[in-house]
Amino acid sequence: MLASQFNMGKSNLIFRQLFDKDTSTYTYILACSETKSAVIIDPVLECVERDLKLIKELDLNLLYGINTHVHADHITGTGKIKLYPTCKSVLGSKSGAKADMFVEHGAKLKFGNLTMECRSTPGHTNGCSTYVLHDQRVAFTGDALLIRGCGRTDFQQGAKEILLYNSVHSQIFSLPSDYQLYPAHDYKGLTVTTVNEEKTLNPRLTKTLEEFVEIMNNLNLAYPKRIDVSVPANLVCGLQD
Amino acid sequence: MLASQFNMGKSNLIFRQLFDKDTSTYTYILACSETKSAVIIDPVLECVERDLKLIKELDLNLLYGINTHVHADHITGTGKIKLYPTCKSVLGSKSGAKADMFVEHGAKLKFGNLTMECRSTPGHTNGCSTYVLHDQRVAFTGDALLIRGCGRTDFQQGAKEILLYNSVHSQIFSLPSDYQLYPAHDYKGLTVTTVNEEKTLNPRLTKTLEEFVEIMNNLNLAYPKRIDVSVPANLVCGLQD
User: Fold this and answer.
1) What ipTM was assigned to the predicted interfaces of this complex?
2) Quick check: A201 contacting B, CB < 8 Å?
3) How many domains does chain A have?
């Protein structure tokens, strides 16, 4: 089944996808249209002014600055975005980093009349989380699942191919097939996918576990350019003293 | 009123926004979920393979390759995308360029069970068109209206500030305030806006006509890098002999 972004069931969600060209990172602003309570997912340090300007223009009240995980490719904007007075930084409980609030697998994050479920989807990093809005039939997958791809499994906490494979299959592919999936990155200009698309078209995760491990072990990826700057900063939520 | 992308009234629209980083151009794929009939708006030559791959993956039947106008910043993909057998290129009737089909102001373009209204919105170029899907409460504005901006008015067919101002006010700002607006470009990573947002926040088009002309006459924009290559190619719909 092909889902439409314009047909997401009952919805009082204000939604904005934002892009950082330098790192091909997607940031998301979500808000309850009734109360204006809002969250931002995976803000990028260099784009915080753009994001806060939009939040102000839309008259939103920012409650949470969420990182789906400790990023290795860019410095999170959550440290700076906390200049917004009501905003708390949020990370998965297994991230091993600093944040104002930690969310466990199965936890519900409420903003206004919206509820977002946190699902633990480790593999790319130990603390990776996927956030699901069931009423809107949409999930934010971070780097666990990308459009026709997935996050790498060879750094931060060591080789975790099996963990990632199981996370995606048990926590994301188990969602209804029409759910829209929004990733933390895309490098080809694609913006969104669906559970059904990735279950049928993902060139890695449609394979058997053994084939998947083989693929991931032979990617021969370069050492991430910004990892030595990004990870230490992101372990403290991007706060700069 | 703030509209949600997830609350677009009755909808059988499959919708994909695609981005070209080199030129910050947005391409859109729209399709009827019942019949799979599809159109593509403003494809970019260098991204045609990506676009056709997605069209094939989604099992769509491409009917039209639409250019909102004769672009000056990139070569259209419509010439190449016509390798897809059922696809016809479409341009506004006042564009002064080649295409398989020309649409007049007020014309309705049907694909499957969806209907898209063409509105003539000249100013950036003479042939600029905005395409409106009323059932989905969404419009594709090309370069007539950008997010917190608008297309330049100083090239191709001469100074056309008054024309652009009147186009936006009479054809776009006259739409219901919750309609989502998708532009042909954004240079800051924003993806969508609404009629209400631009009517209240656009720094140029909220001004009086006199102030708007003054602003546009003092932009001091550089000569577009690719105009001498792009416009001649786009005048023949990007077809390469």
Assistant:
1) 0.90
2) yes
3) 1
